[in-house]
């Protein structure tokens, strides 16, 4: 009798352990077929995390270093605690400004990063005398094995039943061929002074998942935006556009924004950086626009000049900021998506046109 009881208890113990393992796997692996995009608050830098239906992860840019590890820790929190990832499959850099690649090395000291992607590493950067020192940390983290992205390249991602792709449409000042339908807004381009900085060389990522599309252009500036989008529109319309350069007015050229005609625009701005009245005004001119989201309230603008409070993740000044993120989640077939601001009750739902 005792032997039979011990056998039953042993079977129960194994079942519990297997069940616990299954639970852990369910948490750690994608099981709902959705594509998730997290816009992480790094106080006016940039950090966007993607988790694909196959469970692959991609981080584009990584915010500022220092600040007691503030941005590094916010990224790790979203990656590990919210998205339930133990590592990064891909980490990309749009361009070589510190608010965009500042934490790649710090993240690599905390988690495994399988692949590093960038536009190629220059020896010097005119606008940053400390660049040779700063890039040393990145070189060490990537073991000098980062992969160069050029306009027209495809980022290698696993696709399931619903097609998934990321195409590089700009890099190092080059753009994809200007093919496609004529851009009806081409005449609106008024050239600005040439931008000699690395902003103009930003890598731009065009993601497509079923019928859903999303464009992220780093800090691409005015004239290169026009180079991409005139006289023809090789990108087409997109569902979601991440306002370029944090929403500064030296970017977000109407010839690009209006031709993209996004339904949702996300501003990854800071309290005093980006989210400009001009860029917000351009976004509002898009015919298909349904919502604008901001990571921060722009403390320099009046409330009526920016999006309503329910669409703003952080309203506090930097010293008191909670670092709330914005999550976008696309349905398994790519035909619908939701956007939710952390700690806000409402989830906003948008059908793909």
Explain this structure to me?
The chain has eight helices and 19 strands. It is an alpha/beta fold. It has one domain (33-351): Ribonuclease Z/Hydroxyacylglutathione hydrolase-like (Metallo-beta-lactamase, Chain A, 4-Layer Sandwich), CATH 3.60.15.10. 48% of the residues are buried.
List the helices and strands in order.
HEEEHEHHEHEEEEEEHEEHEHEEEEE
**Mean pLDDT level:** 92
Helicity range = 10-25%
Range of strand content: 15-25%
Please describe the topology of this protein.
Elements: H1 2-28, E1 35-39, E2 48-51, E3 57-60, H2 70-82, E4 87-92, H3 98-101, H4 104-108, E5 112-118, H5 131-142, E6 147-148, E7 164-171, E8 174-175, E9 181-182, E10 204-209, E11 212-216, H6 222-229, E12 232-233, E13 240-242, H7 254-260, E14 264-267, H8 277-284, E15 291-296, E16 312-314, E17 326-330, E18 336-341, E19 347-351
Parallel strand pairs: 3-4, 4-5, 5-6, 11-13, 13-14, 14-15, 15-16
Antiparallel strand pairs: 1-2, 1-17, 2-3, 7-8, 7-10, 9-12, 10-11, 17-18, 18-19
